[in-house]
Amino acid sequence: MALLGYSRLVGTSTAPTSDSAFTKDTFSKNIISTTQPLATTKPPPPTTTTTTTTTSHNKSQPSITTSSSPITTTLKALYQTHLLLFSLLFSTLTLLLVRALSALQSLGYTLFLFCNLVLYRLLFCVKTITMETATLSWSIWDSRKARQIRKKIEFEFFVWILGPGGNLLCFLLWPGWIVLGVMVWAVSWVLSGSGVVGVSG
């Protein structure tokens, strides 16, 4: 096409003569004849071959085999798509796992700080309550009414100990009861042991 345009350009710039007209016609015919097969050529259709196969029953069945290039390209495309989806899924799961671990770490750190704060406040409240209770108890114990009650209780206790109640208390809390109990247990053990020996002999 470029040569055809060049020849037209050259033909219009020069004066037409018989020789130049002849060469121009033959040159344009040659160019057209060489460009026409390029425009009219078509790609060949895919070749299909038919083959016959025989079975054990002596029957023939035709089978058509096509060229494997479209199948191969389709399989390659499917494989690449599969790899792309797998890598996308793997990266997404990895990102989600990292985000979940970071969220758990931040949650654990927040819970740790919250528990420390609550424990500190609780200990401070317990300490304050203990100190206030001790102060209040001491103020009640050291009051004039409490001292009068304590003196009365002490007087009644000493009167009961030094009076007839003291004899009963000494009788009940006498340390000799421990010695008497050990002696009674030893005698009963000796008697029971000799009785067993006499029966068995």
Shape: elongated
Query: Taking all residues together, what is the mean pLDDT?
Result: 74
Computed over alpha carbons, the radius of gyration is 61 Å
Largest sheet: 2 strands, antiparallel
Structural class by sheet pairing and helices:
mainly alpha
Tell me the β content: 5-15%
Q: Total number of β-strand segments?
A: 2
**Distance between the terminal alpha carbons, to the nearest Å?**
146 Å
Please write the string of helix (H) and strand (E) elements. Answer: HHEEHHHH
What is the count of helical runs? 6
Q: What are the low-pLDDT stretches, counting only 5+ consecutive residues below 50? A: 1-7, 12-22, 35-40, 48-66
Oligomeric state of the chains in view: single chain
Major β-sheet strand ordering: 1-2
What are its keywords?
6 helices; disordered N terminus; mainly alpha; 2 strands; 201 residues; two-stranded antiparallel ribbon
Protein topology:
Blueprint: H1 2-13, H2 18-40, E1 49-54, E2 60-65, H3 69-141, H4 144-162, H5 164-172, H6 176-200
Antiparallel strand pairs: 1-2
Structural summary, described in words:
With 201 residues, the chain is mostly helical. 80% of the residues lie in helices and 6% in strands. It contains six helices and two strands; from the N terminus they run H-H-E-E-H-H-H-H. The chain has a two-stranded antiparallel sheet with strand order 1-2. Strand 1 and strand 2 form a beta hairpin. Helix 1 (2-13) runs antiparallel to helix 2 (18-40). The model is unreliable at 1-7, 12-22, 35-40 and 48-66 (pLDDT under 50).
